[in-house]
Design a protein that fits this description.
Layout: E1 2-7, H1 13-25, E2 29-34, H2 36-46, H3 50-56, E3 59-61, E4 79-85, H4 87-94, H5 101-111, E5 115-120, H6 127-138, E6 142-143, H7 157-171
Parallel strand pairs: 1-2, 1-4, 2-3, 4-5, 5-6
Helix pairs in contact: 1-7, 4-6
Length: about 190
């Protein structure tokens, strides 16, 4: 399996780190594209520089490298996740404005009919944000806000991140054991 991972400038870089670590452990090939602000937020929130990110991803491309493989539909992938996704990046994708490798890669995923999952990180949301989300949802994009559940009684930030990463993996039907699933302990087989 091969996934494109996008990181834009919204808060929540820790979710991207958790996702990349999980995908590496699962042996899934990752192609990382970060916006300039995505890199800055990664340093600010997690303390990870570009070199650290290269250790987590199989491939890492420059934000403006429109000659990168992910800029073409002929480069086969199983989809893309943008985590976190800023409202600027979401607006660009929703309106077909492919001015960077990140937005071009998302455009390619959509035009090729592949799975695109966007994890927006903003609150509160204004009408324009909501309209862009609706526009993308109608175009087949999965909108997955970074909104952790607490029914599993998380005990740490790692538990919260793991649950969100698990939701992202579920969207691609990737098996994992990052968090407990609701009700599984109640399931019994009939004999």
């Amino acid at each position: 399996m091969r996934l494109v991972i996008g990181i834009s400038g919204g808060s929540g870089a820790i979710y991207a780190v958790g996702l990349l670590q999980a995908l590496r452990q699962l042996g899934i090939e990752t192609h990382l594209v970060m916006s300039g602000m995505g890199e800055k937020v990664m340093v600010h929130e997690c303390g990870y520089e570009r070199a650290d990110m290269l250790k987590m991803a199989d491939y890492l491309y420059e934000a403006e490298d429109l000659f990168a493989p992910t800029a073409s539909g002929t480069f086969k992938t199983d989809g893309m996740v943008i985590v976190p996704c800023s409202m600027k990046t979401m607006a660009a994708i929703a309106n077909g404005y492919s001015d960077s490798l990140l937005t071009r890669s998302a455009d390619v995923i959509m035009k090729e009919g592949r799975k695109l999952v966007i994890v927006p990180r903003e609150t509160p949301l204004n009408q324009i944000h909501l309209e862009n989300m609706l526009k993308l949802s109608r175009a087949g994009v999965t909108i997955m806000p970074a909104s952790p559940g607490f029914y599993n009684h998380p005990e740490s930030i790692a538990d919260i991140v793991g649950a969100m990463v698990g939701k992202i993996l579920d969207a691609f039907s990737i098996e994992h054991s990052l968090s407990a699933r609701w009700g599984e302990e109640r399931l019994t087989r009939r004999k």
